[in-house]
Design brief:
about 190 residues; alpha+beta; globular; GNAT_dom; Acyl_CoA_acyltransferase; GNAT family N-acetyltransferase
Length: about 190
């Protein structure tokens, strides 16, 4: 298996990874951190997918996708922090004033897990941010130690996976997800 990670410009492939089974559902579409809370609450049903389709068309892409051949098997949301709610988040601190990028969601399709795809997604998101001129990339993973994490709530990633990718602990946060603290981890791209 050869995994290739590329910018998420094909809407149907993004839909495969983060879209709902029912087009009318009000699921995340990985918009919760990307857009202001008011807009996130206003976008209902198909309007959520339409918003993501527009991001794919007009750019910058809303993240990166991992492919096994032509099949989309993984997703990672990555964007300039200034373009996300992390720019205003009171629970996740700003370490400095650098124009950092945020990597906040990793999803691997069922049937493709435990094959290294999340590692490829992290590496692909890092390379994408670097290619866009990001000086630093941040992530806000769970610091779960050896505790098991519900797959639904593991979207933020796990500390050990980011450590393997060269990220280091930069700050504690007051954010908690699925009963586990989230930490701020960074990788300098300069």
């Amino acid at each position: 298996m050869t995994i290739e990670v590329r910018p998420a410009t094909v809407f149907e492939d993004v839909r495969t990874l983060v879209g709902p089974k029912s087009p009318g559902a009000n699921v995340c579409w990985c918009l919760s951190y990307r857009i202001p809370s008011k807009l996130n609450n206003e976008l209902r049903g198909p309007a959520r997918g339409e918003y993501v389709a527009e991001l794919c068309r007009t750019g910058p892409p809303p993240g990166v996708l991992a492919y096994d051949g032509d099949e989309p098997v993984g997703w990672a949301a990555v964007a300039p922090r200034a373009d996300t709610s992390f720019a205003r988040n009171r629970k996740i601190p700003h370490v400095d004033d650098l124009p950092v990028w945020s990597l906040w969601c990793i999803r691997v399709r069922p049937g493709h897990r435990k094959q290294g795809i999340s590692h490829a997604l992290i590496a692909g998101a890092v390379e994408y941010a670097r290619a866009q001129g990001a000086p630093v990339i941040e992530a806000y993973p769970l610091d779960n130690g050896d505790a098991k994490v519900d797959m639904t709530m593991a979207y933020a990633g796990l500390r050990k996976n980011f450590e393997r990718a060269g990220f280091t602990h930069a700050a504690d946060t007051t954010s908690v997800l699925a009963g586990h603290p989230r930490i701020l981890m960074r990788l300098d791209l300069r």
